[in-house]
Design brief:
7 helices
């Protein structure tokens, strides 16, 4: 009886061990599957973030190009006015282009989605910090508001007395070009526009570069997950 009992206990213990091992293996497989799903979802979110950043860089680069074009037109006009150069038709386009400005439309849809799922989804802390900085864009709104206030409060009223009509899409013809040469208010506006656009270019280029660096970090993280 003692031998039978001993064999039974060994058998029972063996069965229990097998059941426990089976449960542990099942849990491990389940955890592995969940981790694999989480990694795949993280990679998907990283790709979406990368696409959004790429679109934003394109917008920022366009803003830089428009501002540089406006600076060139302002400088051409100033050169003619200050050097007493004669009027020519090509100036009409520069009068118009000198007023152009473009503010980038920042695509933050993927970042907002990530915040809904939870920032903890991104394991790389450097990427998380970079994302928070990239989408802290209050200063963009501040720059835009300042530009609009300056244009509508200062530039627009002055231009209405100096040009036959004005817009950003077509040539602008001065009412009196000779008088424009000695108009210090208009020259001051041109110099202020140049200074404002140089400041904007500085911020836009810095913002674009930081996003490029962030895209490189994301790209490395995506490759690691494959």
């Amino acid at each position: 009886m003692e031998n039978k009992t001993s064999r039974y206990l060994k058998y029972a213990i063996g069965e229990i061990v097998l059941v426990v091992v089976g449960i542990l293996i099942a849990l491990q497989i389940n955890n592995w599957n969940e981790q694999r799903k989480e990694n795949a979802f993280e990679a998907k979110m990283l790709i979406e973030l990368q696409n959004g950043l790429s679109q934003n860089i394109q917008q920022l680069n366009r803003a830089v190009r428009v501002n540089k074009g406006a600076i060139t037109s302002c400088e051409v006009i100033l050169q003619h006015l200050e050097n007493n150069l004669p009027y020519n038709d090509s100036l009409d386009i520069h009068f118009s282009k000198s007023l152009e400005w473009f503010y980038p439309s920042i695509n933050n849809a993927s970042y907002e989605s990530l915040k809904e799922y939870g920032m903890q989804l991104i394991k790389n802390d450097s990427i998380k910090d970079g994302l928070r900085g990239a989408y802290d864009i209050q200063w963009l709104t501040i720059l835009s508001n300042r530009q609009e206030l300056y244009f509508y409060n200062t530039v627009s009223p002055a231009l209405s007395t100096l040009f036959e009509s004005y817009d950003f899409r077509g040539p602008m013809h001065p009412i009196n070009y000779e008088a424009l040469k000695t108009n210090n208010t208009y020259k001051h506006i041109l110099r202020t526009l140049i200074a404002n656009r140089k400041a904007q270019i500085f911020y836009f280029e810095g913002f674009a570069n930081s996003r490029k660096n962030l895209m490189e970090m994301i790209d490395k993280e995506i490759k690691k997950s494959k």
